[in-house]
Amino acid sequence: MTLTQWFVFFLIIQVVHFLATWKLYVKAGFKAWEAAVPVYNAYILTKIINRHWSWVILLFIPVINVIMLPIFWVETIRSFGQNTSKDTFLVVISLGFYIFYVNYFLDVEHIKDRSLTPKTAAGEWISSILFAVVAATIVHTYVMQPYNIPTSSLEKTLLVGDFLFVSKFHYGARTPMTAVSFPMVHDTIPKLKVRSYLKKPQIPYFRLPGFTKIKRSDIVVFSWPVDTVTQFFVKNGIKVTKPIDKKSNYVKRCVGIPGDNLTIVDGKVFIDGKPLDLPEKAKPQYSHKVTTKKPNDIVNLKSLYKNYDITDPVISPKGMVLPNGNRLPGIPITYEKARLSGFNKYRNIGNEYIISAMTKDEAENLEKKSAIISVEPIIASKGEKESKIFPNNGKLNWNKDQMGPIYIPEAGKSVNLTPENIAFYKRIIEVYEGEEMGIDNKVSLNGSQVLINNSPTSSYTFKQDYYWMMGDNRHNSEDSRYWGFVPENHVVGKPVFLFMSWDTNAKGLFNKIRWDRIMTTVGGDGKLVSYRYLVLLLILGYIGISFFLKKRKEKQA
Fold this sequence. Notes:
The protein is an alpha+beta fold. 28% of the residues lie in helices and 21% in strands. The strands form nine sheets. Strands 1, 2, 5, 8, 25, 26, 27 and 28 form an eight-stranded antiparallel sheet that branches. The protein is globular and about 90 Å long.
């Protein structure tokens, strides 16, 4: 919905509210016209229901207002003596229209000093839960959101099984665009596995002011721009169109900001011809071919975990023969799968392996082992075509290790449009700055002329900023190299704090917890610094102070 449509919708709501409540306003000692003035009528209503004026603010916070509206309906009828479970059920199930019946057909009186204490234990629990959900949703939506790392694309910096907090306020919190959704969940209601939101109405994009901008090498959480899967990482063949804020969340490193000219040469990123400056914690990794002196030496690769920090090894032995005699050349097998299956089951597998997620230093250290002949990075050659690479038109001889130059669009800046470069910007014009903004844009070609909505054009001016996101695990990351730019309105936030880390491959409960990663910051250079003892001290301090204040209050009573 556009701003104009929302304004009209808002006015309709005001008219409905006036018609449903004006008599109740009068019975409460106010004027009928006070039920008709937008915003002011909500303030007067808080007085009628004997609630704090700050409830008015909650009515205008997206998602929160969906929770608050039923609360206002129930509080309104209860302020006029309609306290039964039947009344509560009717006002909620009728989406508030039961108030019309109370307003016009019942002889009710306003209870001025109505007790706000629930009359039953169940009512008290429901009240507490509702406002806990409201508070948690505000924090989750506008301040800080928990996030779990599901893939190894940022291996070495963020590991699979890391649980972290994503700051919404660093880059400015993006207000929800989906007006009606289930609180505290993303695109799917857990267990039920059904959509957690209504596709319409949609609220226009708005972002609160932040105190920093996205910089090169920042780790960023964002809504995956080309997401069409029903659930995150569950690709069941059914494609869906999702609102921006309900697309699956990805986390990558920003390697290109608006206005940059980006090139990838031999797997390395260059900005305006200069190598990308990465922080010390960032450790780019590539697939390597390892050749051992002896065949069947997969057993000796157990040391990868322990001595070489290879946390995401994929071993692809050539000519592997399974116990049943079937030969499976080149089938990848993780170290963990080989360990669980018993290394002795893998025979005649040759002396060449492909191992992913190795840094340059790790490869050099591994090559020094006496059992190793060589460790060579597997880098695609220049001119070698990879069909899935952006801009996905199959005309460029690009691959994941050799790309560019690519211009990263900047808001307010223009580019010349030609048949040769239109593939880079077609989705921007049609989708990101078209249908997702409520605009029906259509890009086409007429010979050597680019057409937008059938009108010849030679340039285009971008309406928002764009970014280029990549994983540090260069050969095991689905990122901008495959689907292109990340629009500014898809940015979710900045990972700032790692509160838990769980290693599913480890044995034993104690060993599964990566203790050295708990309560550490995500950003910064150098080694991880843990704040777990400080956090524990603050928690104990809070408990102690709360206990002391409670005891003092009991004595005073």
